[in-house]
Every structure is written in structure tokens, then in C-alpha cells.
Design the sequence.
């Protein structure tokens, strides 16, 4: 019997692991494992708080069982690890979840097993960090008794068009034969097809540069936004004009948060420095993007002072705290940096978000979500996230949520016509 006929365990049921477990669970036996018992319970009850998988899709995954009991992994022979790989307070890779997951898998690893990693890592991490742990805890020999694969996740939270099965998947294996098996495994669920990489390292590197490239492109337009603000030129108008050329890349300025673009480049720069090279362009882009939230906050304060507002006695409303639109994910949200910067000026900040989980926001950031409307007015507004609910509003409607004369409207995502916003009575700022 081929290894491909064996039971699968998907370790980690977040934005990456759950859609994967569900797709495999539609066609074969799968154990969806997570150490979070509450997460397992909600999925077993047929709901997904991340909103990545619909209730109907959960029902169609008839061969998927959920568990937080390690003993339920004993009869699995394929392990797909999809745990988070964050950074620490000084932007170094935090491999703790990956290490703990590898230790757990190592304890239940049997001869002939296959361990596939999807978590974003630096090139070489699977073989340098994970494999030794698997060998030590299992007593088995790599590429003799067990094998590894790497197939980086390409999940885009909140995107219902470019979903898991519709995004081409990179695959790789620790031997040529295993590489073919890993590729066949993913071909069984990925309708968009696969791209076999020549090695684990190549697949790891491909993943980490995807988001590094995007990060740098956004950093460029962010820097342009700062320059054009000083020149009193509207950045969006410039980008639209430049976009009339067929090969101009349509990137927009913004606050770069989330668990991918704002994190992955640090994995690459960490490894580069390990081998004696200090990256310049990548880190420069990171510095620009990491500073944008504070830049927006300072621009709001500057404009409020210019309008004669007593900043220390004012209230600023912030619409949106998730890291991107139409998604409940608050991980590494740069809106939090904006809020902290505003508070440093003595401003009272009220935050509202129809997508975010209030208890999660309070737990992660100590921020209590509130209300901003005609009954709960503020002195200025920052529309930080492009949720559909905010796109449907008009500048006139937003103005009714504000006190006094000439409130500032920081339209971070350029959702509104700036001329209409100015006509409504706002002092407008947008990146």
C-alpha cells in the first residue's frame, strides 16, 4: 500500500490548516488537530470563526474528524504541519510553534511516515531545525525511515475567489521519489495545478520571496506617498495616471500588517545575516512599511493642530482594526500602532470594527471596541480598513459622526472621493 493511501493529520486548524483539512476530508480520512480545545469544539459544532470555510463545506468534509488529543494521531502516517511562524519583539523568527509541533509529531512518528511543512520559514529551516527534532523524538532516520516535504501555504484570508484549490501550489520532497508523491497528494485537491520545486530549500525560498517582493513594492509607493504629501500632490491620482502605461504595477500605499507580508521578509533577512550578508533593500522596505501607521497618526495630529483642535481633549474615531478588509484576522495589525501613536499625544481613541471579535481584540491588544455613529460622535476620523461596510458610506454620512468644524478625515485606503469629502466639511488626508 502506498503512503498516499494512509491517513492524514493536519496539525494546526487556523487560516491555513482548516481549508486544507476540509478539502482532504472531502475525499479521504483526515484528523484535523489543534491544541486549542475551544477551536476544535467550534469546528466539531460546524462553525468556523475565521470565516474561511462555510458551514456547507464543513458538512461536505465527511471524512474529517477534529481532535486536540495527541493519541488520535497514532494511526496517521502523513502529517501536514500548518502552525504559525511569527516574529518576536525584535523582529527575529519565533519558531516556537513550529518546534513544538515537530516535537509532537516526532513522538507519534512511525516508520514509513511523511511529514509535510506548510508554515512559512527561511530556506533550510525544515532540514536544519525540524528534521533533527523529528529524528530525536522518534528514534527514526531521515530519508530512510521517514521523509519530509515542503509545500508553502498561499492562503489569502478573506479572499473567496482565490481560495485554496484555485491557487497553484508549490510542492517538494526530501528525495525525488517523495517529491513525486507529495505532488500527487496535492494534485488530488488543487484544481489549479501544482509546481514541483527541485528541493525543500527552493520551495522554502520561493515562499519567503513572494511576500518580500510585495512588501518592497508597497514600500516604494509608501515612500512616494510621503514625498508627494510634501509636494501637495495626491498620490492616488499620480498612481492612476502612471497606471495608464501597460507595464506599470498597480500597488497602492498602506499599512502593511498581517501574518505574511509584514513578517516573512524578516525570516529571509535572518537567514541572510546568519550566512554573513546584511540585506539592505529588504530591510529598508521593512523600515518604511513598519513606520507608516505612526506616520498616518502624526499627520492626523498635525492637521488637527492646524485646524485649532485641542488635541489633548479630543477624541479620534478609528474605523477598522483587522489587518485587512472583510476579514476578522487581527494578527500583526498595524492599526494598533496607529492607535498607540495617537494615544501618545493624549488623544482619546475610539475603535470600531464590524468584523473583529471584540473579546479577541481586548485579549490581544487591550483595546475595547466601541461605537462611532451619530449618537457617539468623535472629533476626527481615521478610516483604517476598507471593509465593505465603510465603502458603502458617504463622506456626508461620515461627517454626521463628527463634532465641530473641519474634522480631519484620514482615508487610509482611499475609499472616498477626496473632493466630495472636502465639500462635506472634512480636512482630508489619504496616503
Sequence:
Amino acid at each position: 500500500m502506498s503512503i498516499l493511501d494512509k491517513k492524514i493529520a493536519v496539525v494546526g486548524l487556523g487560516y491555513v490548516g482548516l481549508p486544507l483539512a476540509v478539502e482532504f476530508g472531502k475525499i479521504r480520512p483526515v484528523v484535523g488537530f489543534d491544541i486549542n480545545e475551544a477551536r476544535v469544539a467550534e469546528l466539531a459544532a460546524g462553525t468556523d470563526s475565521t470565516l474561511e470555510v462555510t458551514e456547507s463545506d464543513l458538512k461536505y468534509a465527511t471524512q474529517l474528524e477534529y481532535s486536540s488529543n495527541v493519541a488520535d494521531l497514532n494511526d496517521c502516517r502523513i502529517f501536514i504541519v500548518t502552525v504559525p511562524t511569527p516574529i518576536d519583539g525584535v523582529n527575529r523568527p519565533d519558531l516556537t510553534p513550529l518546534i513544538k509541533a515537530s516535537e509532537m509529531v516526532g513522538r507519534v512518528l512511525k516508520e514509513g511516515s511523511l511529514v509535510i511543512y506548510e508554515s512559512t520559514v527561511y530556506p533550510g529551516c525544515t532540514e536544519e531545525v525540524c528534521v533533527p527534532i523529528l529524528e530525536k523524538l522518534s528514534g527514526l532516520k531521515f530519508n530512510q525511515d521517514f521523509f519530509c516535504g515542503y509545500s508553502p501555504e498561499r492562503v489569502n484570508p478573506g479572499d473567496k475567489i482565490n481560495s485554496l484549490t484555485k491557487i497553484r501550489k508549490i510542492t517538494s520532497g526530501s528525495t525525488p521519489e517523495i517529491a513525486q508523491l507529495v505532488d500527487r497528494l496535492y494534485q488530488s485537491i488543487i484544481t489549479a495545478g501544482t509546481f514541483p520545486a527541485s528541493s525543500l530549500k527552493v520551495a522554502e525560498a520561493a515562499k519567503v520571496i513572494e511576500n518580500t517582493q510585495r512588501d518592497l513594492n508597497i514600500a516604494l509607493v509608501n515612500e512616494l506617498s510621503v514625498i508627494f504629501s510634501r509636494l501637495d500632490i495626491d498620490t492616488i491620482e499620480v498612481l492612476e495616471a502612471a497606471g495608464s502605461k501597460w507595464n506599470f504595477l498597480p500597488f497602492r500605499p498602506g499599512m502593511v500588517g498581517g501574518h505574511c507580508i509584514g513578517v516573512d521578509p524578516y525570516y529571509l533577512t535572518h537567514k541572510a545575516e546568519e550566512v554573513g550578508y546584511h540585506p539592505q533593500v529588504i530591510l529598508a522596505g521593512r523600515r518604511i512599511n513598519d513606520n507608516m501607521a505612526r506616520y498616518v497618526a502624526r499627520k492626523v495630529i498635525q492637521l488637527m493642530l492646524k485646524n485649532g483642535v485641542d488635541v489633548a481633549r479630543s477624541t479620534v474615531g478609528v474605523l477598522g482594526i483587522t489587518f485587512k478588509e472583510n476579514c476578522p484576522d487581527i494578527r500583526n495589525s498595524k492599526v494598533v500602532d496607529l492607535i498607540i501613536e495617537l494615544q501618545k499625544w493624549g488623544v482619546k481613541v475610539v475603535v470600531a470594527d464590524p468584523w473583529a471579535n471584540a473579546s479577541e481584540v481586548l485579549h490581544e491588544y487591550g483595546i475595547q471596541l466601541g461605537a462611532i455613529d451619530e449618537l457617539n460622535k468623535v472629533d476626527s476620523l481615521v478610516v483604517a480598513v476598507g471593509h465593505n461596510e465603510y465603502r458603502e458610506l458617504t463622506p456626508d454620512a461620515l461627517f454626521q459622526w463628527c463634532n465641530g468644524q473641519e474634522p480631519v478625515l484620514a482615508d487610509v485606503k482611499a475609499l472616498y472621493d477626496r473632493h466630495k469629502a472636502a465639500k462635506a466639511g472634512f480636512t482630508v488626508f489619504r496616503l
